[in-house]
Design a protein that fits this description.
CATH class of chain B: Alpha Beta
CATH architecture of chain B: Alpha-Beta Complex
Distance between the termini of chain A: 29 Å
Number of helices of chain B: 6
Helix content of chain A: 25-40%
Number of domains of chain A: 2
Oligomer: heterodimer
Largest sheet of chain A: 7 strands, mixed
Shape of chain A: globular
Order of helices and strands of chain B: HEEEHHHHH
Structural class of chain B: alpha+beta
CATH superfamily of the largest domain in chain A: Type I PLP-dependent aspartate aminotransferase-like (Major domain)
Order of helices and strands of chain A: EHHHEHEHEHEHEEEHEEHEHHEH
Number of strands of chain A: 12
CATH topology of chain B: Sufe protein. Chain: A
Strand content of chain A: 5-15%
Strand content of chain B: 15-25%
Number of domains of chain B: 1
Strand order of the largest sheet of chain B: 1-2-3
């Protein structure tokens, strides 16, 4: 059976060039970067080289502004808790949005229990944050504004540069969760007024379990992990060198291929969305029609439920995901789909395809061939389907 | 490989007795699209026995499989026997369900009981009128 992987938001394959770059760092170059002998210094060289590559991906002026972490979740925790704890003498207010990743929302919720005040700014039906809504929520007590670059569930790209300008006008730090966006769209931390940016290696076709946080020089931040003082004291623990080298290589490849690959995926995406909405009645696009990540195809179908769609697609060899509660741990549908104003039953019928470097026209054709029959079959089964659709 | 037993997947792939009974003697609807699971069970009663049972379901794999399974378990049973079929019986007949699905999606037994109550209520009303 043909197998089509369109769940890159959940996990990406590691680029073979990345795997190759990592190989020497398991058993050939194994010294500790903190050691001063040549074994250690070889490792240090690779570590700093990787740091430079990650810095270049986001347009950072200095490589030392990049701190390696264990992934996007840790980067978001470090950025938000780190800024909050270090700057609480200045204020206790954080402004964020309703469509952040759980690692931002739950960190903010935690800080809320610690006495910080959190404002969650809503979004419009496309999932776009209104710059003026952010502005109107910032007070003299605001120490941090945290906004996602683009949400991976709906793909909508936020007006980051304008929000950054406002945050800086109001003397608040600006953190951006760019886990889903980095490597897909060009990012420049200086032009976009970003003080902290969270990155994940796996979302760049690098290994899982490693990420980075860009911290602009001069940003006041407290570490979350205390220990031996690695990563300028901001992230103690011996560096995970093979994975960091992998992330560095992945960042370098993403930087070099972003333009051509982004254009290719955007074309595939546009055709995929158009043909799907044309061929299936009562189907709708989630997120912004044009300001969206090149790989994101988020749709919903009335009268049916997402887990049934996923199981049915899986039976045809196609991997996708859904915001339906039926696949969640919480029994609540995706907070992102709820935040763009979808009713529970609409969110349950959502389907998310995320393209990748390996996705082809044939893959899209295949999904377009099997999906209408699946939707039809599930609708025939559903008591909600109107008679004229049967 | 799925999170579900092979039996659940088999019922999901080939649901038994899917559809409506236009002249049903009893209809039971349980669940709610808001929660992600909703099912309607239709019954046809003859000589105090379930002559036919059909279902329509909006929901996850477990919701579809339990609906399909209840029609198999209930068909041919007397009303009294059918009322004794529990959620646990349905889950067991399917080789078990993931823990998170035991409450939200395992509604089929409730749906069947609703349909039987609906039939009994209608019958009572008819006898009172008759």
């Amino acid at each position: 059976m043909k197998r089509v992987y369109m769940d890159h938001v959940a996990g990406m394959p590691i680029d073979p060039r990345v795997v190759e770059a990592m190989m020497p760092y398991f058993s050939v170059v194994y010294g500790n970067p903190s050691s001063i002998h040549s074994f250690g210094q070889e490792a240090r060289g690779a570590l700093e080289d990787s740091r430079r590559r990650v810095a270049e991906l986001v347009g950072a002026a200095k490589k030392d502004e990049v701190v390696f972490t264990s992934g996007g979740t840790e980067s978001n925790n470090l950025a938000i808790k780190g800024v909050a704890y270090r700057n609480k003498d200045k204020g206790n207010h954080i402004v964020t949005t309703t469509i952040e990743h759980m690692s931002v929302l739950n960190t903010c919720k935690y800080l809320g229990r610690q006495g910080f005040k959190i404002t969650y700014v809503p979004v419009d039906t496309y999932g776009t944050v209104d710059v003026h809504d952010i502005e109107s929520q910032i007070t003299d007590d605001t120490i941090l504004v945290s906004v996602i670059y683009a949400n991976g569930e709906i793909g909508t790209i936020e007006p980051i540069k304008q929000i950054g300008e406002i945050a800086h006008d109001k003397k608040a730090y600006f953190h951006v969760d760019a886990v889903a966006a980095a490597g897909q769209v060009p990012i420049n931390v200086n032009e976009e007024h970003i003080d902290l940016i969270s990155l994940s290696s796996n979302d760049l076709y690098g290994p899982k379990g490693v990420g980075a946080l860009y911290i602009k020089e001069g940003t006041r931040i407290e570490p979350v992990l205390h220990g031996g003082g690695q990563e300028r004291g901001l992230r103690s623990g011996t560096e995970n060198l093979p994975s960091i080298v992998g992330m560095g290589k992945a960042a370098e490849i993403a930087n070099a291929e972003m333009k051509t690959e982004g254009e290719r995926q955007s074309r595939l995406r546009a055709r995929f969305i158009k043909d799907m909405l044309d061929s299936i009645p009562y189907s709708f696009l989630n997120g912004h029609p044009t300001k969206r990540l090149p790989n994101n195809v988020s749709v919903r179908f009335s009268f049916i439920e997402g887990e049934s769609l996923i199981l049915s697609l899986d039976m045809e060899g196609v991997a996708a995901s859904t915001g339906s509660a039926c696949t969640a741990k919480t029994l609540e549908p995706s907070h992102v789909l709820r935040a763009i104003g979808l009713k529970h039953e609409e969110a349950h019928g959502s389907l998310l395809f995320t393209l990748g470097r390996q996705s082809t026209d044939e893959d899209v054709d295949y999904v377009l061939r099997v999906l209408p029959a699946i939707v039809k079959r599930l609708r025939a089964m559903s008591p909600l389907t109107p008679k004229e659709l049967m | 490989m799925t999170m579900y037993s092979e039996k659940v997947m088999e019922h999901f792939r080939n649901p038994r007795n899917m559809g409506e009974i236009p002249d049903a003697d009893g209809v039971g609807t349980v669940g709610n699209p808001v929660c992600g699971d909703m099912m309607t069970i239709y019954i046809k009663v003859k000589d105090n026995k379930l002559a036919d049972v059909k279902f329509k379901t909006f929901g996850c794999g477990a919701a579809v499989a339990t609906s399909s399974m209840i029609t198999e378990l209930a068909k041919g049973k007397t009303l009294e026997e059918a009322l004794k079929i529990t959620r646990a019986d349905v889950a067991e007949s399917l080789g078990g369900l993931p823990p998170v699905k035991m409450h939200c999606s395992n509604l089929a037994a409730d749906g069947l009981h609703e349909a039987i109550q609906d039939y009994l209520k209608k019958k009572e009303a008819k006898e009172a009128a008759g």
